[in-house]
Amino acid sequence: MRALSVIAALVVWHLCSVNHVSLIVSFENVPNPLRVGEQLFYLLGTEEFYTHIGVSFWRIVLSFCIASVLGVLVGILMGRSRVVADVMFPHIEILRPIPAVAWIPLAILMFPTEESSIIFITALGAFFPIVLSTMHGVDQSSEVYVRAAKSLGAGKLDILRHVVLPGALPSIMSGLAIGMGVAWFSLLAGEIISGQYGIGYFTWNAYSLVQYENIIIGMLTIGGLGTASTWLVKQASKPALRWQENER
Predict the structure, then answer these.
(1) From the CB of residue 244, how many other CB atoms can be counted at a distance below 10 Å?
(2) Mean of the per-residue pLDDT values of the chain
(3) What pLDDT was estimated at residue 248?
(4) CA 83 vs CA 69, 86, 88, 141, 165: distances in Å
(5) Could you give the maximum distance between any two Cα atoms of the chain, in Å?
(6) Residue 233, Cα to own-chain centre: how many angstroms?
(7) What is the pLDDT of residues 80-106, one digit of tens each?
(8) pLDDT tens, residue by residue, 111-168
């Protein structure tokens, strides 16, 4: 059913493009899937296209690792400490709605290189869903289990390790998966800074040069890589959540 849905979308796209449909949305300048496919086949034979993908993938890996470590740590502290939550939560709520594009001028001023600016913007986008999901997961830990662990002589670290974190893992893993998707979204904005490589830069440069096929290829590449990365995060989280399957 999902494959048929994708095929149907391609057929609709093709018919709208070749017939130059112009109703609410105009397809007059949108290339049809066959032209996009031909251009993609050509790009797959060039080294530059793989360089763009490789550079973006490296930026995503580094940014996501930074966001994951900081997001999980801060989320745990906010979930377990009312003082930390009162100090950190207002800042997170104020900064979270700011889109990645709006951070570009400040990132250029704050960081010495373009590369560090891109990493900052991408990591910042992934940080917010991770920290909020972690905080809510930790905050919703069952007090019955916590009190039971205390009655058995467990200390704070034991409770955190054996009670709180296992209970919060589903929320943490969901936050990581969402954060990966947001990281790719933020990367496109961050790579506008870069004048050399990256799939976001490739897409923006195609727009500047009026290369319509490359615009669509860049968009679909970002979507495909983002979907694959999110799937990898979900697969990596399955061993940690195996206890859920046993309960079912």
Answers:
(1) 11
(2) 85
(3) 52
(4) 21, 5, 9, 18, 20
(5) 74
(6) 10
(7) 888 988 998 899 999 988 888 888 888
(8) 888 888 899 999 999 999 999 999 988 887 766 666 777 776 776 677 777 777 777 7
Contact 137, 168 (CB under 8 A): yes
What's the topology of domain 33-241? MetI-like fold (1.10.3720)
**Cα separation of 101 and 124, whole Å?**
12
Q: Which of 83, 179, 175 is nearest to 134 (CA)?
A: 175
Distance (Å, rounded) from C-alpha 187 to C-alpha 199?
9
Element (H, E) at 189: helix 165-190
Residue for token pair 């594009």: 101
The span from the CA of 63 to the CA of 116, in Å, is 10
Prediction pTM value:
0.84
Tokens read off for 159: 């409770």
The first and second tokens of residue 35, run together, are 């032209």
Rg, Å, the chain Cα set: 22
In the numeric block, the tokens 């727009």 are attached to 207
Residues 80, 160 contacting (CB under 8 angstroms): yes
User: DSSP letter at 32?
Assistant: P
Length of the chain: 248
| Structural element, H or E, at residue 193 | none
Look at residue 200 and tell me whether its pLDDT is greater than 90.
Answer: no
Give the closest residue to 118 by CA, choosing from 50, 110, 93, 216.
110
Is residue 133 a contact partner of residue 75, using CB atoms and an 8 Å limit?
yes
Residue indicated by tokens 């930026």: 59
